[in-house]
Design goal:
Blueprint: E1 21-25, H1 36-43, E2 47-49, H2 60-71, E3 78-83, H3 85-95, E4 101-107, E5 130-134, H4 143-153, E6 156-159, H5 176-192
Parallel strand pairs: 1-2, 1-3, 3-4, 4-5, 5-6
Length: 193
C-alpha cells in the first residue's frame, strides 16, 4: 500500500509511491498557485512538472514533446498525471507504449475537438493502467464524452458528480481525494506488474 494517513498532508505518500516519478502535466495556460497540481508539487519531491516555454499555445504536439523531454530526466518509471489538455497529451504518450511509463491519471480531460486533437488522441485501450476522473458540469467537455474516452482507453472511470473542471476555480485546491485516486492507481500498477 501507499498510505495517506492524514489526507490533508500529501507528504505522507511514501511507501511504494517512491518507486515512481509522479509527473504533473498541466493543461492550457499551466496550473496556477491555487491549483491542486501546484499544491501537490510544492508539498513533496515525489512530484515533478513538465516544462514549456509557451503555455498559451493550443498545440497538443507541444505538450507531447514536453512530456517526452521530461521522461528523459526520469530515473524511475513515470506516472503521468494530466489535467485538461495535459490529460489528452498524457494519453497520447502512454499510447506510444513508452517503456518508462507505468500508468496515467487523466483529470477533467478537455474536449479533443477544442484543441484540434480528435485525430491525434488514441481511440483504443492504452497499454498501461489508467484512471479518468471527471465531473458532470465541466464546461470543457460533457460527462458522456469523458465516459467515451474512458471506455476507449480502458481507463477506470471516477465520476465526481458536480465538480466543474476540477481546478482551483471549481474549489479543488489541495484535493486530498485526488491523492486517494492516485494511490489506488499505484496499487493497480503494482498488481499488474
Amino acid at each position: 500500500m501507499c498510505p495517506i494517513r492524514n489526507p490533508e498532508a500529501i507528504d505522507t505518500l511514501g511507501g511504494h509511491c517512491e518507486n515512481y516519478d509522479l509527473v504533473l502535466v498541466p493543461g492550457w495556460k499551466n496550473s496556477g498557485a491555487e491549483h491542486w497540481q501546484t499544491m501537490w508539487e510544492e508539498k513533496t519531491p515525489l512530484f515533478s512538472r513538465i516544462s514549456m516555454r509557451r503555455w498559451d499555445q493550443r498545440d497538443i504536439y507541444l505538450w507531447i514533446d514536453a512530456i517526452n523531454r521530461h521522461l528523459d530526466s526520469c530515473s524511475k518509471p513515470a506516472i503521468l498525471i494530466g489535467h485538461s489538455l495535459g490529460a489528452l497529451a498524457s494519453a497520447c504518450v502512454i499510447a506510444e507504449d513508452h517503456p518508462e511509463i507505468a500508468g496515467g491519471m487523466f483529470v477533467a480531460p478537455a474536449e479533443p475537438l477544442r484543441f484540434e486533437a480528435e485525430d491525434i488522441i488514441p481511440h483504443e485501450p492504452l497499454p498501461r493502467p489508467s484512471v479518468l476522473v471527471a465531473g458532470h458540469d465541466d464546461t470543457l467537455i460533457s460527462i458522456e464524452r469523458t465516459e467515451q474516452l474512458a471506455t476507449a482507453w480502458g481507463s477506470e472511470f471516477v465520476d465526481l458528480g458536480t465538480a466543474g473542471h476540477i481546478n482551483a476555480e471549481s474549489g479543488f485546491g489541495r484535493w486530498p481525494y485526488g491523492l486517494n485516486i492516485l494511490v489506488n492507481l499505484v496499487d493497480r500498477i503494482e498488481a499488474s506488474g
